[in-house]
From TrEMBL:
Pfam families (alphabetical): FHA
Domain FHA positions: 23-72
Species in which this protein is naturally found: Bdellovibrio reynosensis
Domain of life: Bacteria
Record-given protein name: FHA domain-containing protein
Residues spanning the signal sequence: none
Ranges that cross the membrane: none
SUPFAM superfamilies: SMAD/FHA domain (SSF49879)
InterPro entries per the UniProt record, alphabetical: FHA_dom, SMAD_FHA_dom_sf
Gene3D superfamilies xrefs: 2.60.200.20
Length: 229
C-alpha cells in the first residue's frame, strides 16, 4: 500500500502528495509547499515510528497540527485520518501500489490551466495573444512575507499579479485580486498599479512607472525586489 495525503479543504483543494520518510511540508521552505498563510515555512516532517507506521511530526511550528480541533505533536497517518495545518485540511488515503501513479497525478484546475498555458506557449500562441519579450528579462524576488525566498523570472509580458491571478499569484492575505501589471517597454518594464494605495513602489503610491534595478514593490506584509537579468 502507498500512503498519500489529500487536501480536502483549502488552497489547491484536491491535490494529493505521496508520503515519504524525511519529506517536509510547509509554506515555503519545504518539500511539499502549501499556500496557507497560517502554515510555518517548514511546518512538519514525515517520519516512520517504531512500528513501521508513517507519522507526521510537528517541527515546533507556530500554529501546530490539529485533529478535531485539538493540537497535537504527531499524527499517525492511518487511512481516513483527517488533520489540519493552518487553514488547510488533509485526509490520509492509502491505495494499492499499482494505482499509486495515476492517483498522484490528480491536481487542481488552477495547476492544470497553468501547465496547459506553458505547453501552448512554444506553439506560437504567445504571438497570437500579442505578448512581447522582456528585454532584458525581469526577476522578482520575494524578500519579505509569506512567499519569502520565492523567485519569479519573467521573459515576456504583459503579466498580471494578484491574489486571483493565474499568472503571478500573490498569497499575502492583504493582496488585492488585481495588484499590478508588468508591461514590456524599450529596454525596461513598466509597472501599472491596479490597486492604488494598497500596492506601493519604493514606499510610494504611484499609478505607473518604469521599473529600475533594486526597486521594491510592497503590499500587505509582502516585499518584492526587482532586478533585470
Amino acid at each position: 500500500m502507498v500512503t498519500f495525503i489529500e487536501i480536502v479543504e483549502g488552497a489547491n483543494e484536491g491535490s494529493r502528495f505521496k508520503v515519504e520518510e524525511g519529506l517536509t511540508i510547509g509554506r515555503s521552505r519545504a518539500d511539499i509547499v502549501i499556500k496557507d498563510p497560517k502554515a510555518s515555512s517548514t511546518h512538519a516532517q514525515f517520519a516512520i515510528d517504531g512500528k513501521g507506521q508513517f507519522v507526521l511530526m510537528d517541527m515546533d511550528s507556530s500554529n501546530g497540527i490539529h485533529i478535531a480541533g485539538r493540537r497535537v505533536k504527531k499524527v499517525a497517518l492511518l487511512s481516513g485520518v483527517i488533520f489540519e495545518i493552518g487553514r488547510t485540511q488533509f485526509r490520509v488515503v492509502t491505495v494499492e501500489e499499482e494505482l499509486a501513479l495515476d492517483f498522484s497525478r490528480l491536481i487542481t484546475w488552477r495547476n492544470i490551466l497553468k501547465d496547459r498555458l506553458s505547453e501552448l506557449q512554444p506553439m506560437g500562441l504567445i504571438e497570437q495573444a500579442q505578448l512581447e519579450r522582456f528585454s532584458p528579462a525581469l526577476k522578482l524576488t520575494f524578500i519579505q512575507g509569506i512567499q519569502t525566498d520565492e523567485e519569479i523570472i519573467l521573459g515576456y509580458g504583459p503579466r498580471m499579479a494578484g491574489s486571483d491571478s493565474l499568472d503571478i499569484e500573490l498569497l499575502d492575505e492583504e493582496a488585492p485580486k488585481e495588484a499590478f501589471e508588468l508591461i514590456p517597454g524599450p529596454g525596461m518594464v513598466e509597472i501599472k498599479i491596479k490597486s492604488a494605495g494598497r500596492v506601493l513602489l519604493n514606499n510610494k503610491s504611484v499609478s505607473a512607472e518604469m521599473l529600475k534595478d533594486g526597486d521594491l514593490i510592497s503590499l500587505g506584509s509582502t516585499l518584492i525586489k526587482v532586478a533585470y537579468l
